[in-house]
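Hi X.,

You mentioned you wanted examples for the new student's onboarding notes, showing what a folding record looks like when two proteins sit in one file. Here is a clean example. The first protein comes first, with its sequence line followed by its structure tokens.
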Amino acid sequence: MRTRIAIKLHALLERFFPERRVFLRSDTDTRFVRLRPGAQLVAFTGVSLFVAWSIVATAIVLMDSIGSGNFREQAKRDQRTYEMRLNEISQERDARAREAVKAQERFNTALKQISRMQTALLTSETRRREMETGIEVIQKTLRRTMAERDTARARADTLRAKLADSGNRGPGMADDGNGTDTLEFLTAALSDTAGERDRINANARAALRRAEEMEHEIKLMQDQNDQIFAQLEDAMSISVAPLDKMFRAAGLNPETLLDRVREGYSGQGGPLTPLSFSTRGEAPSADTLRANLILDQMDRLNLYRIAAQKAPFSKPVLQSFRYTSGFGRRWGRMHNGADFAAPHGTPIHATADGVVIHAGWLSGYGRLVKIRHDFGVETRYAHMSRVRVKEGQRVSRGDRIGDMGNTGRSTGTHLHYEIRVDGKPINPMTYIKAARDVF
């Protein structure tokens, strides 16, 4: 069976690869090499595989060359796009910074205006109270003058009656012969009484005119107070609303935050004392209640200001920079902060008031500064080239705490910035974006 198959296979190969002889001739001899069908098949297969491999390899090299060229072009286009985007972000950041400066200036101007209005309001309210007290004194004087006038009229009537009685009695009825003297005395008394009555009437009319003038002045002052109140209420609404929105955007409960600020208050500009003008146990007036509401808002604004200084709403790098990495997973690992790239030695600033709890080398962080703030917040500034603060030092927002560098586990000059709340890392951009329209 195998012999038959071999014979048929040999016959088939003979059809395509007939046996050939290759003669090799020398000067003295002639030899030949027999190429059997099987040997020719093996040689043909080997040559075919080599040619096929050459074609495929050439195609791969050519395609790789073309593809690498496209990849390089695409990489260049991506790089140009990325640079354009960085420039746009940088311009937008600068615009936001200018807007923040203008907003801060408007905020400071509003605070000054509010302070002036508050002083004017207190002065106006004091004057109004003094005028009300003056009106009460005038009214008491007027009532006393009216009573004296009535008494004088009664005396005058009594004297007239006595004078008339003396005239009716005649000369012979006089007891002591001095009727003329009595008449002169009574006439002088009547004249004095009439003059006193006229003076009392004039004083009463003057007091009434003065009372009307003071009532008109009080009405004007009330209108002025209403305008001042309206301006103060608008200013409070404009000033408090962005701050409230900023804290809520940062994930902080404003009421809880303000309660904690009140508990740890150290006398920085407040809290404000409510107005209390009455000393007679009377219920406060509508203006007093309105003024107290404004003072409550001003107290809230002051507490917000204190809280904003103690929370990390500022940027750690105030010069030109670019973001190179954000918060989240990166290369399979959690990146607990945000990276800011700038030239070597760029100043790094504290983002809020606090106390330095670490200033030195720490493992992969390199040169690191940790600052503990209020409300359980901690900020970290890593990879510095130089540390400019000491452990235990108290710093304020904007203070320079170090220089940007490339220490620790870092691939280039940059700042790694972290915010931790109660030990848990959160996205620093949450705070920075929340304060974008305020600071």
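Then the second protein repeats the pattern, sequence line and then tokens:
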Amino acid sequence: MKAVLQRVTHANVVVEGELIYEIKKGFLVLLGVDNTDTEKDADVLSKKISGMRVFEDENGKMNLSLTDIGGELLVISQFTLLADCRKGRRPSFINAGAPDMANKLYEYFCERIKFDGIETVKKGVFGADMKVSLLNDGPVTILLDSKELIK
């Protein structure tokens, strides 16, 4: 499971011209599910993201987590994170999870991160053509791969 974690001052997602969800200060997470991922991958990423200390404390140091600041989370499914670009100019998505399996793990991740202390979790629409807007704060952008976190 791969995630692009972006610290934002605000973010939103629009589907077919309609605002679906918006968040204030927190994280926008683009989440890609690999065809070998399991709930363990979602558990590991959830724990890492909820505890990631990249928000500034009273001294201006990145020392606070999303849970510490009561921040919000917007999770967008993004199968293109699994693109294999090693050959040619057209990416292969053969490693991306099948839609039913990927959606199940996407939903599981969104529920699991609530268990890890994130009260406000908003989502995009799985499989939809979405327009995502954000104001990246910092900018702070972090790439996470569950396979690298599982030991």
